[in-house]
Structure formats: structure tokens, C-alpha cells
């Protein structure tokens, strides 16, 4: 029988070591013999879907979650298979991923960076999520991407449009399917020239956060390259609801174009105010006054109602693109059928990007033959694919940004129903929206090394 | 000059909303001594009364149109509102078009009922509790109310337009000798300002010229003495809570065409309205109205490009800067009375 001698110093030492061990983030100890975070041991693999379930983007988050659920169903061989049948890669066969049934957990980002990080952390540490996806804000995406990099899991971004997500804040573990502010501006520029000419004076109202700044910088550069001048750029608080005080200075500023670098509720309110103040009926410099909303969404169009008529913007995808623009966008109709039959309405672009991201992750794991995030990263980097609704697409290795066609859209003048509020004006080809990896608007960051969490 | 006139006009409509909400807050505080953080939620519910009435009036039956297909390739359907079916296209569409003004009559009983239920069901239990408890419980109630609205109406803003004849803008500048299209102002915002003036006047007249109002004012000044005279002041104060809820609700109804209603709009106004009450002077009804318009106009001026260029970020803090200055120089606010919230 051994005798244990307890000393004060010994107790403190032991306590300190035990405390340090307990305080160490669980994900650092969650790795298994496989050498990466949350390696699945049983017959299921868990994905974490982090979407806004409360807050101003809750409707968009709900649509993302519907798409994720649908993707999981299809991966597990349920339902009609959706875009699995049109996806150019054929390694997914409806038996889950690498023979493991796909399960998922969901979290609420609340469209707040701290809440989104806490929810992602919980899914990684407590639920064993091996991949995190979703979100409707660039601020949130950048924050969660950073967390996933530290935790050693893959982050498949949802709706995030700031240049920074795959620019100065890019990470090796993060991947973005959605387009970005630069691409919107590059896609819009030729259409704006065609519609409104090259002698225009633009006034910008810009949401005062990362997405707004990069959107404004991008569209200003693109329009100035056309010969337009920039009269002013006014930053508006994200929490603003009444923009009348910002709209009225536009009236007599000499500008003949108002660019609303706003998204969601900000855009709905600023556009409504601009229309109320008669900007759309105004003539300045002998031209009709025009309003541009660089980033569009169906939900925003619905919120803006009749005010959106004729307003030009850009989208990553639209549910009508295959029917109207042809078979290049194959996969769209299969997804719309699948989503429409299940939920009763067409999917939004947020839903499409989340569905595509889930399939792309699963496909990369299947091709890599492992859930190791670094192997999945290698499989995604430089991957060229088709059949997910956007036409031929490249996941560029340099920055983990997808390059594909961008849609230029406008609000329908006479929508036949609530699902046809947006009309496709033109599709801008990939080459026109592609930029060099070291483009100044994306400078300042580095992918760094992949972190498997080991 | 034109920019200054425009910002004064902007401030008037924003100030109207602040003044109406602050008026209700002050009525509740002055009568019941309760700091009601759920008051912004009442403004939001008022807006959703307009949304609800518009939806009720737009209830439709569906007819299949075999010549068209929906997004899934099935035969398409189109909706015909019952009011159009019953009264014909012109009258039926006219009724739907006027749903916001009609919602005034729809909202009054609903808001009074909500006010009664709030006061009798919850807030009366906190009369003798510290103000911190009252703030916590009413703030919690505000969150519950906004989540209920979000559950039923979603998080997306819902456009609720003004009647066709009030859409568009009025050329104010030509009246003042400016060139055409220099000072234009939306018709509905002018309507809102006029509506606010009528409601504020009606509330003051009610308190000033009716026996009920006289008793309420006496109760606000000395509740105990009025009670000793055998008057059931509590019952009157409950009615005043309902009235304050109705004022906030009506402010919300008419605000619906200005900014598309969303579940969070009450919170957006709440903090600013409290600052308005404090600047005006706790318990002072004229102070609340004066401060509402004053801060609305100052906020508009602070958003002018020239001012932002001069002091970056001033548009986001102006109201609080003014509040600090006023409270430093006049601790009871602009028109505050001695003894209110001074224990």
C-alpha cells in the first residue's frame, strides 16, 4: 500500500497543470490518432451550419438552412438527388461521404461576429463538427474563418461579398464559392456604360463596415475607369433606418447617379427613401437620374417592393438562369425542382451557394479519400468543376476564391408574381471578372499554412 | 440655404416620430412612475397593424390559369382579392390602396387593448419596485414582442405603401422662390408631420380641457391627495397607459410607408426616444415634444455632408452630445420639474 504525501506546493503545482490542461481549447485535444480535428470515428460525419437564425438576416439564414438540409438529404441518398446528377465530378454516389452518413448541427450567428464565433466554436468542440459553413455577413465570415483556421477545420463560406474574405483576411482553411465586390463592379461596369453612358457623376452612400468599404472602392474604381466622376462618398451607420438626411444632400449635389452600397434592411430603407424623394423622376445634367445597387438579392427585392423596378445590380446566381441563359448553367433547374418541390418556392442565391459549398466539400473529401482538412483543401484548391448552376467554375488555389460568370440583373418592371421580381439583364463571363491574385484591392494578407488541428 | 431648409423638413418628420413616442413614454412615466422600455415595441406593433390590415384586405382566392406555368412547370394560378371581387376593381383596389390610413381605426382598439393587458397583466406588479427592475422587465417584454412579430412576419422588411395620391414629392422650393426641383419633399412625410401635430394637440387638449384630464394631471402632481379625495386614480392611470400605447401605435401605423416595417424598428427608436424624454425633462409633456423636434432637426443637420466633413462621425453621436450638454447645464432637462426622479 503506497502512501501519498500531500504538500501545499504539490497541490498547487498539480492544480496548475490540471487547470492548464482543462483550460486548453477542447479542439486542440479533440484530434484523434488520425492527426486532425474531429476525425469521425463512428459511421457518421457531422457538418456544422452556422447561419443567422435571429437578427436582421434571419430570413436569408432560414433559406441557407433549407439548402443545407437538402444537400445533406441528397448526400445521404434521399430525395431526388438535386445537383448530384448534374455535378461534373461523379465521386458522390448518395451513400454519404466516404461511406459515412452525413449528420449536421446548426448554430445561430445572429449576424454578430462574437455570437457567430461562439456558435461555431460550440459546434466544433461539443458537436464534433468537421466543417463549418453558412453566414450572411462578411464581418461574420471573416471572424468565423479565422476561428476555423485556429481550430483546424474547413470553413466553406456562405453569403459573404467583401473583397477581404478572400483578400487581406484569407485563410488556408477557408473557401468562398460566392462572388465578391470586385467581381460585382467588373460585371456591372460594361452594362452601366451601355445603359447610362460614360459621362456620369456618381454619389455613393456606403454602409460603414468591411463589406461596404470594399464594395464602394470596387464600384468607384470600375465606374471611374468608364469616365464617370465621383461626387462624394458618405459613410452611413449600419444601424441607420431613415436615410432621408443622407439622401437630401444628393438632390443638389450635381450627381446624376446614386450608388447604394447597402445590403439587406439598409438597402431596402435607403432605396425606399431615395424613391420617396423623387430621385428616380429627377433630371440632372440633362440626363435621367439613376440609382444602382451593386449587390442584389431576391429577399432584398421583395423587401424593397415596387421601388426596385428598373434598378440595376449584380447577383451570384438566379433560379431562372438556366431557363433563360441556356444549358451552360446546368444544375440550376435540377436544384430549383428539388428545392421548390420540398419548400414550395424557388431558392435564393444564398441557398444555392450554401448547397453548392456542401456538395463541393463532400466531393473534395471523397476525392481526397480522407476528412483531413488539409487534404480536402488540396482537393479544392485549383479544382475546376461544372454543373452546380454557375457554369464552368474554378476554385483558385491562390486565394480560395471561386471564379465564374456573374449575373447583371435589374428589378422587373411588371413582375408576373413574387418570384419574378428580378430580371437577368446580362451574364458577364468569368474572364471579365477575373483579377490577379496580387491585385491591390486584395492585398495585405496571405493564405498561410493549412491547419489540420493536430 | 436650400440644404438647410431640406434638413429642417427632414428633422420635422423624424422629430414627429420621436415626439409621439416620447409623449407616450412621458405620459406613462408621469402617471404611473414606470420607465417603460417596451414603448418602442408598441410603435413597432402599430406599424404591423398597418401591415396586418393590408394583408387582411388583400386576402385572395386563387384561379388557375392554364395558359401559364409556375416555376415548377405546374399550371399557374393568379390571386384575386375578395374586396376586388365584391366591390369591383376600382373600389376594391382603392380600399387596399388606402390600407394605411384605414389602419388608424384598426389600430386604436388593438393598441388600447395591448396597453391594458400590458399594464394589468405585468407592469402593475412593478409599480413599487425600483426603476432598474421596471427597465429590466419592460426591456424583456420588448424583446418578447419583437420575437413574436418576427415569428409571424419574418425578419425581412415589409413594404407598406402610402395611398397612390400621396406618393411622390412636393416641390417646396417653388413656394419659397427657389428653382424647380431644388427643395422637394415627399407628400407622405408632410402628412406624417401634420398627423403628429394633430395627435399631440389632441392629447394636450384632452389633458387640459376635460375633467378626466384634469384629474389625471392632479394625480401626476400629487397622487396621494387625489386618492384621499375618493377618486380612483389607478383606474384613470390604467386608461392613460392604454392611451399612451395608442399614441405610440398610431405613430407606428403612419410611419409604415416611410420605412418598411420590420420587427426591430421599435428598438431603433427606443433609445433615442428615451434620450428625448431625458433632454425634455422627465415627466414633462411639452418638454418631450420640444426635445423630440429639436433632436430630430439636430440629427438631420449633423448628417449634412459639410458637417460630417468638418466633424467625422458627428452624425452618429450628435443626440448624445446634446443630451450631455443639456444635462450638464440643466440637470432636469429643458422643461423638467423639480422632484421628478429625484429621491
TrEMBL record, chain A:
The keyword Ribonucleoprotein does not apply. GO terms for biological process: amino acid transport. Pfam families: Peripla_BP_6 (PF13458). The keyword Nuclease does not apply. It comes from the Bacteria. Transmembrane segments: none annotated. PANTHER family: LEUCINE-SPECIFIC-BINDING PROTEIN, PERIPLASMIC BINDING PROTEIN OF ABC TRANSPORTER FOR NATURAL AMINO ACIDS. Belongs to the leucine-binding protein family. Keywords: Amino-acid transport, Signal, Transport. Residues 44-410 form the Leucine-binding protein domain. This is Branched-chain amino acid ABC transporter substrate-binding protein.
Automatic annotation (TrEMBL), chain B:
It is found in: Cell membrane. It is a multi-pass membrane protein. Coiled coil: none annotated. Its main location: membrane. GO terms for cellular component: plasma membrane. It comes from the Bacteria. The chain crosses the membrane at residues 16-35, 42-61, 102-123, 190-216, 237-258, 270-298, 310-328. Keywords: Amino-acid transport, Cell membrane, Membrane, Transmembrane, Transmembrane helix, Transport. GO terms for molecular function: transmembrane transporter activity. Belongs to the binding-protein-dependent transport system permease family. LivHM subfamily. This is ABC transporter permease. It comes from Puniceibacterium antarcticum. The lineage of its organism: Bacteria, Pseudomonadati, Pseudomonadota, Alphaproteobacteria, Rhodobacterales.
Amino acid at each position: 500500500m503506497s502512501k501519498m504525501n500531500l504538500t501545499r506546493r504539490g497541490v498547487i503545482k498539480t492544480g496548475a497543470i490540471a487547470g492548464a490542461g482543462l483550460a486548453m481549447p477542447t479542439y486542440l485535444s479533440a484530434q484523434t490518432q488520425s492527426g486532425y480535428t474531429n476525425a469521425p470515428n463512428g459511421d457518421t460525419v457531422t457538418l456544422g451550419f452556422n447561419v443567422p437564425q435571429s437578427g436582421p438576416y434571419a430570413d436569408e439564414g432560414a433559406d441557407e438552412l433549407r439548402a443545407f438540409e437538402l444537400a445533406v438529404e441528397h448526400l445521404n441518398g434521399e430525395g431526388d438527388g438535386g445537383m448530384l446528377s448534374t455535378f461534373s465530378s461523379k465521386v458522390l454516389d448518395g451513400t454519404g461521404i466516404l461511406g459515412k452518413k452525413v449528420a449536421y448541427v446548426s448554430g445561430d450567428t445572429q449576424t454578430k461576429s462574437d455570437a457567430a464565433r461562439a456558435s461555431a466554436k460550440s459546434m466544433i468542440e461539443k458537436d464534433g463538427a468537421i466543417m463549418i459553413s453558412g453566414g450572411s455577413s462578411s464581418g461574420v465570415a471573416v471572424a468565423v474563418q479565422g476561428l476555423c483556421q485556429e481550430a483546424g477545420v474547413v470553413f466553406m463560406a456562405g453569403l459573404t461579398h467583401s473583397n477581404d474574405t478572400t483578400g487581406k483576411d484569407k485563410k488556408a482553411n477557408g473557401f468562398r464559392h460566392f462572388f465578391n465586390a470586385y467581381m460585382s463592379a467588373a460585371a456591372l461596369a460594361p452594362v452601366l456604360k451601355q445603359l447610362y453612358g460614360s459621362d456620369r457623376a456618381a454619389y455613393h452612400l456606403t454602409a460603414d463596415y468591411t463589406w461596404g468599404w470594399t464594395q464602394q472602392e470596387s464600384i468607384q474604381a470600375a465606374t471611374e475607369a468608364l469616365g464617370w466622376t465621383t461626387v462624394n462618398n458618405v459613410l452611413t451607420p449600419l444601424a441607420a433606418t431613415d436615410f432621408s438626411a443622407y439622401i437630401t444632400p444628393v438632390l443638389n449635389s450635381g450627381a446624376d447617379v446614386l450608388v447604394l452600397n447597402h445590403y439587406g434592411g439598409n438597402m431596402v430603407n435607403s432605396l425606399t427613401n431615395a424613391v420617396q424623394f423623387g430621385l428616380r423622376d429627377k433630371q440632372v445634367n440633362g440626363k435621367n437620374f439613376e440609382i444602382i445597387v451593386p449587390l442584389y438579392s431576391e429577399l432584398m427585392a421583395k423587401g424593397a417592393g415596387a421601388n426596385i423596378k428598373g434598378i440595376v445590380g449584380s447577383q451570384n446566381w438566379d433560379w431562372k438562369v438556366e431557363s433563360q441563359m441556356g444549358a451552360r448553367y446546368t444544375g440550376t433547374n435540377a436544384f430549383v425542382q428539388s428545392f421548390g418541390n420540398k419548400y414550395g418556392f424557388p431558392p435564393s442565391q444564398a441557398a444555392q451557394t450554401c448547397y453548392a459549398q456542401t456538395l463541393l466539400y463532400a466531393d473534395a473529401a471523397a476525392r481526397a479519400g480522407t476528412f483531413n482538412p488539409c487534404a480536402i483543401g488540396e482537393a479544392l484548391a485549383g479544382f475546376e468543376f461544372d454543373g452546380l448552376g454557375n457554369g464552368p467554375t474554378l476554385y483558385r488555389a491562390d486565394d480560395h476564391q471561386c471564379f465564374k460568370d456573374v449575373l447583371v440583373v435589374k428589378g422587373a418592371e411588371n413582375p408576373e408574381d413574387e418570384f419574378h421580381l428580378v430580371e437577368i439583364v446580362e451574364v458577364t463571363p468569368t474572364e471579365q471578372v477575373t483579377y490577379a491574385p496580387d491585385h491591390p484591392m486584395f492585398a495585405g494578407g496571405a493564405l498561410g499554412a493549412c491547419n489540420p488541428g493536430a | 440655404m436650400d440644404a438647410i431648409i431640406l434638413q429642417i423638413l427632414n428633422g420635422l418628420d423624424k422629430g414627429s416620430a420621436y415626439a409621439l413616442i416620447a409623449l407616450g413614454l412621458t405620459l406613462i412615466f408621469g402617471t404611473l412612475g414606470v420607465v417603460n422600455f417596451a414603448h418602442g415595441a408598441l410603435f413597432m406593433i402599430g406599424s404591423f397593424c398597418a401591415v396586418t390590415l393590408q394583408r387582411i384586405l388583400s386576402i385572395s382566392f386563387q384561379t388557375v390559369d392554364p395558359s401559364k406555368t409556375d416555376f415548377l412547370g405546374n399550371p399557374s394560378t393568379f390571386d384575386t382579392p375578395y374586396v376586388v371581387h365584391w366591390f369591383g376593381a376600382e373600389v376594391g383596389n382603392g380600399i387596399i390602396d388606402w390600407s394605411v390610413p384605414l389602419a388608424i381605426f384598426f389600430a386604436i382598439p388593438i393598441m388600447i387593448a395591448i396597453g391594458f393587458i400590458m399594464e394589468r397583466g405585468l407592469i402593475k406588479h412593478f409599480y413599487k419596485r425600483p426603476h432598474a427592475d421596471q427597465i429590466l422587465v419592460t426591456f424583456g417584454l420588448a424583446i418578447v414582442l419583437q420575437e413574436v412579430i418576427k415569428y409571424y412576419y419574418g425578419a425581412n422588411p415589409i413594404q407598406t405603401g402610402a395611398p397612390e395620391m400621396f406618393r411622390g414629392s412636393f416641390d417646396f422650393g417653388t413656394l419659397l422662390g427657389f428653382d424647380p426641383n431644388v427643395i422637394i419633399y415627399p407628400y407622405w412625410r408632410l402628412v406624417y408631420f401634420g398627423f403628429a401635430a394633430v395627435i399631440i394637440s389632441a392629447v394636450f387638449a384632452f389633458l387640459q380641457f376635460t375633467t378626466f384630464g384634469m384629474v389625471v394631471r392632479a394625480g401626476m402632481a400629487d397622487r396621494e391627495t387625489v386618492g384621499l379625495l375618493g377618486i380612483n386614480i389607478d383606474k384613470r392611470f390604467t386608461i392613460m397607459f392604454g392611451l399612451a400605447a395608442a399614441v405610440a401605435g398610431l405613430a407606428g401605423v403612419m410611419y409604415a410607408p416611410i420605412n418598411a416595417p420590420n420587427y426591430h424598428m421599435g428598438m431603433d427608436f427606443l433609445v433615442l426616444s428615451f434620450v428625448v424624454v431625458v433632454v425634455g425633462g422627465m415627466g414633462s409633456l411639452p418638454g418631450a415634444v420640444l426635445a423630440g423636434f429639436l433632436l430630430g432637426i439636430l440629427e438631420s443637420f449633423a448628417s449634412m455632408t459639410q458637417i460630417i466633413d468638418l466633424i467625422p462621425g458627428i452624425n452618429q453621436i450628435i443626440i448624445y452630445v446634446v443630451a450631455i450638454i443639456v444635462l450638464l447645464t440643466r440637470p432636469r432637462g429643458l422643461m423638467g420639474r423639480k422632484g421628478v426622479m429625484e429621491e
